Amino acid sequence: MPKMDNEQPHQELVKCVLVGDTAVGKTRLICARACNKHVSLSQLLSTHVPTVWAIDQYRIYKDVLERSWEVVDGVNVSLRLWDTFGDHDKDRRFAYGRSDVVLLCFSIASPISLRNCKMMWYPEIRRFCPDVPVILVGCKNDLRYMYRDENYLSYFGEKGTFVRAALKSDLVMPDEARAVAKELGVAYYETSVFTYFGVNEVFENAIRSALIARRQQRFWMTNLKKVQKPLLQAPFRPPKPPPPEVTVMVGNYRQDIYNMFLSQAYTDLVLVGAGGTKFAVHRFMLAAASSIFQRLLSTELTDMGGRSSSESSMVSSTFGEATIADFNDDTEALIRYESRTQRMWEHLKRRSSYQALPLMESKRSNDLYRELHHPVLQSIRLVHVENHRGVNGLQTIVTLSKLISPQALHQCLRFIYTGTIDKDCDNIEEIREAADLLELPQLTQLLSRPQTVMENSSDEPNPHICLRIKESMERHCIGDGCFSDVTFELDDGLMKAHRAVLVGRCDVMRAMLLGDFREAHSNVIVFPGVTIYTFHKLLCYLYTDQIPPISAVKCLNLLELANRLCLPRLLNLVECRVIEDLTLISQNETNETVDHCLKLLEPVKLHNAHQLAEWCMSYLCVNYNLICKFSLKGLKALHQDNQEYLREHRWPPVWYLKDYDYYQRCLNELNKELKLKTSRRESPSDDEGCLCFTGGKSKRSADVSGTTDNSNADNQIFNSAGNSLNHIDLEADMDLNL
User: Fold this and answer.
1) Per the CB 3.0–4.6 Å rule, which of 33, 165, 268, 476 could disulfide with 156?
2) Which residues does UniProt call coiled coil (predicted)?
3) Are 76 and 221 in contact, with CB atoms under 8 Å apart?
4) How many domains does the chain have?
5) Residue ranges of the chain whose pLDDT lies below 50
6) CA 623 to chain centroid
């Protein structure tokens, strides 16, 4: 069994020493390469404890030794990493001994560590290792974009953290580090153990540097002939920042609608059940949920039997659109009306059969009454009542048969308003029969599957059932204006609504319609500055708690209205819809989304749509280059603070564009050199004649000069300031849209 720590045949052993200030990331870099260790952000930001990675781990741990083996340009190499303390007064003479390459490390977030590389560390290296190749390594290059990351900054708000967050003024840019490397005559690479950028690359090129230096001393070794010069490192492009998340605040839609049922505000229909139990409800709610009530309440009384034309016109106006303010009255008004009857009439009413009650009450001259030949609906009656404001109106009373118990009727009404039933109810079969009789298909479908009954009896209703109910409300209440009692005069037309929903779902509407304002007594309310398109979206939200898709071009009026009416959830929903529309437009690969964002950025802030403004700002930062190419006029129209923010947070950042431009120019120069060498090899020799006499002195001189050139090229791999891969002066600044 071969020894684990011995050099194997046909294998090159490379000793790589890492030096630099303390806390620059030397040990982390060694662990990332030798142990393949990945670290989290919390580990990186923990309080620094000076440590040194022990070199004897290659002898103790087999996996560490196996990871040291690597094939570079066809050469088997065993890379041995040596860690050192960062204290300036330590004696590192033993670590430098017999080293093949030295990595001079500094932190991207510490300009002082870079200055010490020039003033202290490089002279020390040259004192102990005058001929050893040196590579300048910038560690923690992820901090160039993470210094303003919210997740990164969150770690510094905790108590007990002794690490200071990196600031923009602390960062060392690539051109600054490259200038120091040029002054020292060494190559420059960057790494990050967090993103693992450049970890393997820097050590591979360190091996190449060591092997090239070894090839100069052992020119007879054929296995080192194919070793390349250190390769050019592509610049690190920061990851594209994700768009900000848009949250929608939780609404109280179901509770608001249920409170509308409990408060009995603006009710215009009374259901009289078995035992004289009365439920004050709203006609538009029952018509939207139940087909039988939709047919009943939409049919004129003249179609149910004989009636004079005057009575027919009166009933038609009653069941059509409301023309009197506060047409929908409370149950209390009906109770006050009935309390004025004589005691003998109350005694007879309690003793009489429930089926005969409507006939006896219909004898009043001001009432409109009809019997209904239906197993559930017995009669319908219209009565004149007076509300708390002293305004006379009409109330509809529908008497039900004894087939539906008051408990089952209450659960059916609860389902109509909220989409749920009481979780404590135990008469499921009775409720299902009542749902069949009242033609409530959603409730019937729910109760036909017992396993879903308890799920829907909880506080959260079934989403599919709620969707069906909301679609029905939108179709009947918003689209048709069924049984509306108020009309809004808008800029481009009229729209009808129901006071009960407006009061129950919007506090501003509640104050306007219930307070001592003119709108509380008006049949038509003037609403200036609002269009039908905008008001329709508002009604969709009030009735269904959702809004249909919205175009980014038409969103400002709705945002302004939502902000004026103090509806933050509607504001969030509009933001989501607009972002969906902008995201869809951005897939066309045009600058249309950029133009929309430039136009929306500042106006939406005025209406407190901060999430939409943040999304627009993020999109503009990511597409800053498109702005400079196609929408420069719109950019200059923004406020100066917004322009400065976009320049500061643009992606890719300016330092990357400069570094990428430098990288491209390096590649172009390398390609030119490669083409020049290829053309020289393919050109014919100037000495023509007998082959026996060619290649003499001229050939020997060419070989000598070639050897000298190669030797000089190898010596200048890290020292050349003109042809090095990492040292091409930035003489011409390109147009980077800065």
Assistant:
1) 165
2) none
3) no
4) 3
5) 1-6, 305-363, 687-738
6) 17
